[in-house]
Write a structure and sequence with these properties.
By secondary structure, the protein is of the alpha+beta class. It has a single domain, classed as Jelly Rolls, CATH 2.60.120.330. Helices cover 30% and strands 21% of the residues. Helix 3 links the parallel strand 2 and strand 3.
Length: 336
């Protein structure tokens, strides 16, 4: 049985409406007007372990500056070994190479919570809104049970990866909170295993230039991304789309909406997307540091750009907007 989701069959009406599908050209799908290739700020985290306090402080300043000016940056010497990253990728590939039928039965086949497996865009009304990708959304509470019903998979590699990136996310948020004059323990106190999750992504080859993942901002505190060398990640900087060059030694970090609101716009949650490759599949794994639903987001810096709101309220508003309009409105809904 084919492992790929049935994109063509499920979205045949959308393809039929786009006459250029048969010619493998999509002039009606405006992914971006102009895209420039660029490299994100690169921070060497090994400097945080030095005895030189000035060097430590300089590293922290670089992290904060990148979060303010870009909202995205990359880190090397992050403490996660190449062996862990490679083994994690091997397990991820095994999961996605399973027959589509098995992936749809994730609660039976891999002991994930029902609804973990997602693909395409159920709400899409045009090819512009279709994400050509599949993913597993795995709460951190489910990580230890990964593969427990099938000996094909190893839970230890995935669990090691998840534990390490979670620790890295906490370290970075504490530094960013400290540099913006906020309480550096806020994230540890308000993030739960049940609300943080790992998202395993696969972007199958696509013969026309569709989005692998639609332009969006993340709704969390902070995201840690491990991607392969295929490329495809793009983000907005100074009103222009930038194609991010892959770096085999780096993990990619980006600020989420909730962190932007909590920092009173000190740090930026920027729009980003993934574009498809016509001949190669792409894999990535992202860890999302999220608050509990009851966490109240309020900046200690006054006047505040945003009104007080809970993470639950934010998520509900996002879901409502996507249902009603086909896209996420996000933080503008919560302006003071």
């Amino acid at each position: 049985m084919d492992s790929d989701p049935p994109f063509h069959e499920t979205y045949k009406t959308l393809f039929a409406e786009n006459e250029s599908w048969t010619t493998k050209v999509s002039p009606n799908i405006d992914r971006h007007t102009t895209v420039e290739e660029g490299e994100l700020p690169l921070v060497d985290l090994s400097r945080l372990a030095l005895d030189d306090e000035a060097e430590k402080e300089s590293c922290k300043e670089e992290i904060a500056r990148a979060a303010k000016e870009w909202g995205f940056f990359q880190v090397i010497n992050h403490g996660i070994s190449r062996d862990i990253l490679d083994k994690m990728r091997e397990e991820q590939v095994k999961v996605f190479k399973q027959p589509f039928y098995n992936k749809c039965r994730e609660d039976k086949f891999m002991n994930f919570s029902a609804g973990s497996y997602r693909w395409g865009t159920p709400t899409a009304t045009s090819l512009r809104q279709l994400s050509w990708s599949e993913a597993f959304h795995i709460p951190m509470t489910d990580i230890s049970s990964f593969g427990s019903l099938n000996t094909t998979f190893s839970s230890s590699s995935v669990e090691q990866f998840a534990t390490n990136v979670a620790s890295l996310a906490q370290k970075l948020t504490e530094i960013l909170a400290e540099k913006s004059g906020h309480n550096s323990t806020f994230f540890q106190e308000n993030s739960l295993l049940s609300t943080c999750y790992l998202r395993l992504n696969r972007y199958p080859p696509c013969p026309v230039p569709l989005f692998g993942l639609m332009p969006h901002t993340d709704s969390d505190f902070l995201t840690v991304l491990h991607q392969d060398q295929i490329g495809g990640l793009q983000l907005v900087k100074d009103g222009k789309w930038i194609a991010v060059k892959p770096n085999p030694e780096a993990l990619f970090i980006n600020i989420g909406d909730i962190f932007q609101a909590w920092s009173n716009d000190c740090y930026k949650s920027v729009q980003h997307c993934v574009v498809t490759n016509p001949t190669k599949e792409r894999f990535s794994a992202a860890y999302f540091l999220c608050p509990s639903n009851e966490t109240v987001i309020e900046s200690c810096i006054k006047p505040s750009v945003y009104r007080r709101f809970s993470f639950k309220e934010y998520r509900q508003q996002v879901q409502e907007d996507v249902q009603n309009y086909g896209y996420k409105v996000g933080l503008p809904r919560f302006l003071a």
